[in-house]
Write a structure and sequence with these properties.
By secondary structure, the protein is an alpha+beta fold. It is about 20% helix and about 25% strand. The chain has an 8-stranded antiparallel β-sheet. Strands 9-10 form a two-stranded antiparallel ribbon. Helix 2 crosses helix 5 and helix 4 packs across helix 5.
Length: about 270
DNA sequence: AGACGTACCTGACCGC
DNA sequence: TGCGGTCAGGTACGTC
């Protein structure tokens, strides 16, 4: 569901409530989401949050008790600020009860999301994080890095930029959008791409993600910011869910790659 | 290795 | 109104 810009937007919304805040307790309304909730939650009372940050699409809460909480929102997950007196709504699975009568609730109809814990000292060694590639908005994701990977690979470029071990945070929407801006056909085999095209793609990936963060993310149906309101970047889509290309007015076409729908303009994006 | 398909789950929407 | 089919911001895992 949320891609990097949506998770980043949620993180920024959470910061005022969670940074240096206290989790009074954690209550669950079922035993699991994608994986079981940690049994440790039952004994945790009044734990200070020392730091809140994002890695890929994970939100990480580093706690004063030596643990970190990892939160992933899957396809349909939302974090919402609620008053702690409210009864759980449908698909509310876990509540982080805060001071001042507030709680942060994870609501996720499809339950592809997860909440788990690990030791704060070696978060990056956790099984869910250890294989992840660089953050797209840092300098370590650059033309040289990407070109070094792609010249010896054969998969289609769209599938490659959605591979978490290559670069994190790029989901279906922003993969489609950045390829359109770069005028690269999504089925192009990566080892056929020139260095110039790779350079352009790296730049456009960074631009699209940054612009989407500025717009508060994209709302299709499930995604909402912490306050329940929508993001705005969906109004700036060039190809995703679009009918006509705004550049050449040809019809936008769809195809399926690795089980996901790809949107592209067949005249602007050439192999 | 790396490239693929599959599974996990609910809800919205469309055509009959 | 209801039913079946299809689709949806993700990703770990099994198989070839």
């Amino acid at each position: 569901m949320p891609e990097l810009p949506e998770v980043e937007t949620i993180l920024r919304g959470l910061e005022p409530y969670l940074n240096n805040g206290v989790i009074k307790e954690i209550t669950t309304h079922r035993a699991d989401m994608r994986i079981p909730f940690p049994p440790e939650f039952k004994g945790w009372k009044n734990i200070r949050i020392e730091k809140i940050r994002r890695r890929a699409k994970y939100i990480i809460l580093e706690l004063a008790n030596g643990y970190a909480i990892l939160i992933h929102l899957g396809m349909s997950g939302k974090l919402l600020l609620r008053n702690s007196c409210n009864a759980p709504a449908k698909h509310d699975h876990i509540d982080f009860i805060l001071e001042n009568n507030k709680r942060i609730t994870l609501n996720d109809p499809r339950r592809f999301g997860l909440v788990t814990i690990c030791n704060s000292s070696n978060i990056n060694d956790h099984k869910l994080l250890s294989h992840l590639g660089p953050e797209p908005l840092t300098d370590s994701f650059n033309t040289k890095y990407l070109f070094n990977i792609i010249y010896k690979r054969k998969k289609p470029i769209k599938t490659l930029i959605m591979d978490n071990s290559v670069v994190v945070g790029v989901g279906n929407i922003y993969a489609c959008e950045s390829l359109f801006r770069s005028r690269i056909h999504p089925q192009t085999q990566v080892n056929k791409l020139s260095k110039e095209k790779v350079d352009l793609l790296v730049k456009n990936l960074k631009d699209v993600l940054s612009e989407a963060i500025q717009a508060g993310g994209s709302t299709l149906k499930d995604y909402a910011k912490l306050d329940g309101k929508s993001g705005y970047f969906q109004h700036n889509f060039a190809v995703y869910n679009q009918k006509k290309c705004k550049t050449c007015s040809n019809n936008i076409e769809k195809l399926t790659q690795s089980g996901r729908t790809t949107f592209f303009c067949p005249s602007c994006q050439i192999i």
